[in-house]
Amino acid sequence: MGHHYWTKMQNVEPCPRFAHQLVFDHIHKVHYLFGGNPGKFSVPKMRLDDFWSLKLSRPSQDYLLRRCRYLIRKQRFCELASRDPFEALRYLQNELSATVFHDDPEEGKEFRLLASNLFSRQNSKQERMITDSEPLSPPSDGFAGRTQLYDTLVSFFPEHMTQPRGNLVDLITF
Fold first, then answer.
1. What crossing angle do the helices spanning 105-114 and 116-131 adopt, rounded to 10°?
2. Which residues contact 28 (CB under 8 A, 6 or more apart)?
3. Which of 153, 150, 89, 87 is nearest to 117 (CA)?
4. What is the pLDDT of residue 57?
5. What are the distances in angstroms from CA 147 to CA 19, 84, 151?
6. How much helix, strand and coil, in percent to the nearest 5, is found in the chain?
7. Strand 21-25 to strand 30-36: parallel, antiparallel, or no bridges (unpaired)?
8. For the segment 28-41, what is each residue's pLDDT rounded down to a tens digit?
9. Measured distance CA(120)–CA(110) in Å, rounded
10. DSSP-assigned states of every residue in 110-174
11. CA 158, 164, 170, 173: dihedral to nearest 10 degrees?
12. Spans of the chain below 50 pLDDT
């Protein structure tokens, strides 16, 4: 990450540093970071006197359930958009919209960008029909998207409840 990123984020997160002090308050479960040297070549002896705290928390069960529903419905929407744009639009407005946390700017933006799938696929199909003499191939069955969805959903579960992460070929000894 460059200088511009850290200039923009200086009030949001600490910049990389060395020779700092980091302590953990085990009673309140909070990490505290103080000072350090940012390692800028232009000012090699610069010392920071900033103070940061970090408290880690697990996502709630309600959040995880809503997120899983959102991801599943998003995949369904993408599959519908390639086959039936009007049904996909109805699904987007009714089913998928209900799982989005619209107060979160990032999630809201991601949701609004999903509608562009309807138009981009429609336009690309029309462009290909005009420029190519070959007939269109049938829409994909969604295998790649479903596989990626499965891998994402599995990340929410403990490792002992999921399939092995390694490749079965790695278990074979020669």
1. 30
2. 55
3. 89
4. 92
5. 44, 22, 6
6. 50, 10, 35
7. antiparallel
8. 999 999 999 987 87
9. 16
10. HHHHHTHHHHHHHHHHHHHHHH-SSPPPPPP-SHHHHHHHHHHHHTTS-GGGS--SS-GGGG---
11. 110
12. 123-139
The residue with tokens 């929410």 is 156
Half-sphere CA count of 103, side-chain side, radius 13 A? 0
Question: And the tokens for 157?
Answer: 């579960």
- The label of the residue with tokens 């309807």 reads 118
Q: CA neighbours within 13 Å on the CB side: how many for 149?
A: 18
pTM confidence score: 0.65
| Torsion sign, CA atoms 55, 58, 61, 65 | positive
